[in-house]
Structure formats: C-alpha cells, structure tokens
Design goal:
Stomatin-like protein 2, mitochondrial, Band_7, STML2-like_C, alpha+beta, 8 helices, Tetrahydropterin Synthase, Chain A
Length: 337
C-alpha cells in the first residue's frame, strides 16, 4: 500500500469536502472524476497529471501525490485592521473567489495555497486602503475590489492560481467616527433641504414675475387693440357722416333746382330761425335781442334776404372760377405743328 497524504486546508470546508481524507490508492485502473486533476509521481518524481475518465498506472512505481479541484473556490478572508489615508482605523473583511489553472504549479509552487492567498489578500487590502480616505473607501468600493484582484493575480501567477473576484463584506468604523459621519450626513441633508427650499422660493418668485409680465403684456396688447378698434370706429363714423352730409347736400341742391325750390328753402330757413330764437333763453341768462323782436315777419324777411345774398354771391363766383380754369396755361392745348 502506498503512503497517503492528508488533504490541505484549502480544499476542505465545512460545507463541502473537496479532497478525501486520504489520497486515492493505485489500483492499476483508476477513474478520475470531472473537474479534478490527480498529480502522479513515479519513484518520487513528477510523472503526469491524470485527466478525467479512465486511466492506468503501474503499481508500486506510480503514486497519486496531489488531488486538485478545478472548480471555483471561495475563501473567507478574516477581519483585519487597516488605516486609511486620513488616519482612520477600519475593521474590514472580505470574500475571495479563485480557481486553479495549473495543477502542477498549485501542487509544487506553494506549500499552503489557502494561507498564501489569504495573507496576500490581507496585505493587498491594507495597502490599497492606505491610499484612500474614509469617504472614498465607501464610494470607490468597486475600484478597490478590482485593484486587490489585480495585485493578487500578479503574485499568484507562479502558483497556478487565478483570482476571479474579491468582494468586501463589511467595513466597521470606530464609534466616534461613526457618530461624526452621522452628524455629517444630517448636516448634508439639512443643507440639501435648505438649498431645495431656496430654489423653490426662487422658482416661485420667478413664476410670479413671469405671470405679472405676461399679464401686463396681454393687458397692453388688449388696450392697444381697443384703441385701434375705437380709432377705426371713429374713422368709419366720420366717413359715414361725411358721406351722409354729402348726400344730403346733393339732394338739397337737386331740390333747390326744381320748381318752387326757393320757396321751400325760404320756408325751411324761416322755421330754423324761429326755432333758434326760441331756444336762446334756455342756454344762457344773457340774451341779446333785436329791436324788432316782436315783429316775426320782419325777422323772416331778414333771414330770406341773407339767403338771397348768399345765393347771388355763389352764382357770381362760379363763372369767375370757370374763366380762371380756362385761362390757366396748364389747361391750354399746345399749338398744332
């Protein structure tokens, strides 16, 4: 019977036993399980690594020295103390995920892989934490994990082990630092609340000012439109009054040119004169009366005389204007050539 070697601590966990309590015996015909690598020595020297499946060995000469698991392995990194860049002592632990890539290096490159990887992870973690302040440790957790994985892989290449991930589980700070952090968080929250309140007040004031501005603009536009409409209405009214007056004058001139037109005009003038004379006392206390105020016939005769004088003046002015137009050089035709 060949000598047996106890399984290293790396492959024995309370949840799952990666190695058997003793190494397999050389029975000439061996069946290697999947995701395992059996390291064989012949006469005390490395011979080969058995692949999963059926394998044959020479009794007494060949010996199974190591059994390596090729599955992903989880190692719990113990809690340790570390000092940050701003001299704050932290208690931090983590979980390390790794896998064996080269069974030969994992068997002959290091005596205790678990202890070596654990110590390397702890020293790397302390080194990386010393480069960061306390606030950055919490904010840059992902970058801290990636830096630790990179540092472990640089050192573990000679061991045939590949670190896949490193995750920080818990970070414990001293009670006084924790209290100060809590006070800082509360102050930050109060600051944000004050800033938000001031921004809300500012936005409200801006909205009120904008509303007043829009209201003034709309009111001025409405007043402008009202004035334009009033002006247009007044212009239309003036035009309509002028057209009505023009039509009335035209109708009056046509009526005067007819038979007995002068008599009708005389009657109308007399009626208006009498009506105006009767309204003098209603508008003012001071009244200027003619000497013959009681003689109504004389007043009518006087009004008709004024009307006749105006008619003769207009008849004389019309031929004179016609003569001036005919004598002007603008109206004369050029002499024939």
């Amino acid at each position: 019977m060949l000598a047996r070697r106890a399984a290293p601590r790396l492959w024995v966990t309370p949840a799952q036993q990666r190695w058997a309590s003793s190494l397999p015996m050389n029975t000439l015909v061996l069946f290697v399980p999947q995701q395992e690598a059996w390291v064989v020595e012949r006469m005390g020297r490395f011979h080969r690594i058995l692949e999963p499946g059926l394998n044959f060995l020479i009794p007494l000469l060949d010996r199974i020295r190591y059994v390596q698991s090729l599955k992903e392995i989880v190692i719990d990194v113990p809690e340790q103390s570390a000092v940050s860049l701003d001299n704050v002592t932290l208690q931090i632990d983590g979980v390390l995920y790794l896998r064996i890539l080269d069974p030969f290096k994992a068997s002959y490159g290091v005596e205790d892989p678990e202890y070596a990887v654990t110590q390397l992870a702890q020293t790397t973690m302390r080194s990386e934490l010393g480069k960061l302040t306390l606030d950055k440790v919490f904010r840059e957790r992902e970058s801290l994990n990636s830096n630790i994985v990179h540092s472990i892989n640089q050192a573990s290449d000679d061991w045939g082990i590949r670190c896949l991930r490193y995750e920080i589980k818990d970070i414990h700070v001293p009670p006084r630092v924790k209290e100060s952090m809590q006070m800082q968080v509360e102050a930050e929250r109060k600051k944000r609340a004050t800033v938000l309140e001031s921004e809300g007040t500012r936005e409200a004031a801006i909205n009120v000012a904008e509303g007043r501005k829009q209201a003034q603009i709309l009111a001025s536009e409405g007043e402008k439109a009202e004035r334009i409409n009033n002006a247009n209405g007044e212009a239309q009214a003036v035009l309509l009054k002028a057209e009505a007056k023009s039509k009335a004058i035209r109708v009056l001139s046509e009526a005067l040119s007819e038979q007995n037109g002068n008599a009708a005009a005389s009657l109308t003038v007399a009626e208006q004169y009498v009506s105006a004379f009767s309204n003098l006392a209603k508008e003012s206390n001071t009244i200027l009366l003619p000497t013959n105020a009681g003689d109504m016939s004389s007043m009518v005769t006087q009004a008709m005389a004024i009307y006749s004088t105006l008619g003769k003046t207009s008849q004389k002015a019309a031929p004179e204007m016609l003569e001036e137009k005919t004598e002007s050089p603008e109206n004369q035709l050029p002499p024939p050539q």
